[in-house]
Task: inverse folding
């Protein structure tokens, strides 16, 4: 199934039995206390409190968790950003940045950040959204630019599909 990243809701799984714990997030360069749920495998994280209401329930997946959970539903991660680029090109606007901003608005992208396995902090909250790609790399979206970066299996990123 091709992915367009045009969903209003990111992929999530049932977390009702997960443990809640206190953790740290970074918002505008400042550390804040947040609560998260963490999967029994310690590879999926969910925002519980300390973040805006729209972010509650958003989940971040390691590469292995994203593959495991999407395969259970017969879905696959997007191969690359090419489908997204086609969507952006079709948006109204005279320049690429205008088209990109129109895409962000239409898709309702929320900048949910990531779980940094290096610092063990929920980082880039309200600044960027990161999405898992099939090869383990990630697509980063922020208010003005987008990019793809190398594979990092242990970072926690969002997952999104066609509806």
Result:
């Amino acid at each position: 199934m091709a992915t367009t990243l045009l969903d209003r809701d990111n992929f999530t799984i049932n977390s009702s039995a997960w443990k809640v714990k206190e953790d740290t997030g970074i918002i505008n360069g400042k550390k804040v206390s947040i609560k998260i749920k963490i999967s029994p495998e310690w590879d999926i994280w969910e925002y519980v409190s300390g973040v805006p209401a729209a972010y509650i329930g958003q989940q971040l997946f390691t590469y292995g968790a994203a593959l495991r959970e999407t395969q259970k539903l017969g879905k696959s991660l997007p191969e690359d950003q090419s489908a997204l680029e086609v969507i952006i090109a079709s948006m109204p606007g005279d320049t690429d940045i205008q088209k990109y901003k129109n895409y962000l608005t239409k898709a309702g992208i929320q900048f949910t950040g990531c779980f940094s396995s290096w610092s063990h902090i929920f980082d880039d909250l309200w600044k960027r959204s990161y999405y898992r790609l099939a090869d383990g790399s990630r697509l980063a979206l922020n208010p003005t630019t987008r990019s793809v970066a190398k594979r990092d299996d242990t970072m926690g990123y969002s997952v999104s599909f066609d509806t």
About this structure: The mean pLDDT is 86. The chain is about 20% helix and 30% strand.
